[in-house]
Specification:
Elements lengths: L4 H15 L22 H15 L7 H4 L3 H10 L18
Helix pairs in contact: 1-2
């Protein structure tokens, strides 16, 4: 498993729960296509990008949204992104609020 994979998958699961309340969330793998497999459209990808920047303390160009196809693509961008001065926000463990 890659360094940020589990955290990113958790972010995607949370987003899917918000986008489709009451629907089951699939088991997410890095090779899943954001739109075709997970149903995350362009607006959902924009929201995901903002959450990723906040979570990981990185700055990602909005231009990546056009070519962002899979979870693995997003992981690649996170790994290569310059880290900002913003603190990294850790996701609380399941069932616990911060």
């Amino acid at each position: 498993m890659r360094q940020h994979e589990a955290t990113l998958i958790h972010l995607i699961e949370d987003l899917l729960r918000e986008l489709r309340p009451g629907a089951s969330v699939p088991v997410i793998h890095p090779d899943h296509a954001l739109e075709e497999d997970l149903g995350i459209d362009s607006l959902g990808r924009a929201e995901l990008l903002m959450r990723v920047e906040r979570q990981f303390g990185v700055s990602l160009p909005s231009s990546i949204l056009v070519n962002l196809k899979s979870v693995a693509d997003l992981l690649d961008h996170i790994d290569k992104a310059p880290r900002g001065d913003r603190p990294v926000h850790r996701h609380p463990p399941e069932g616990r609020a911060e």
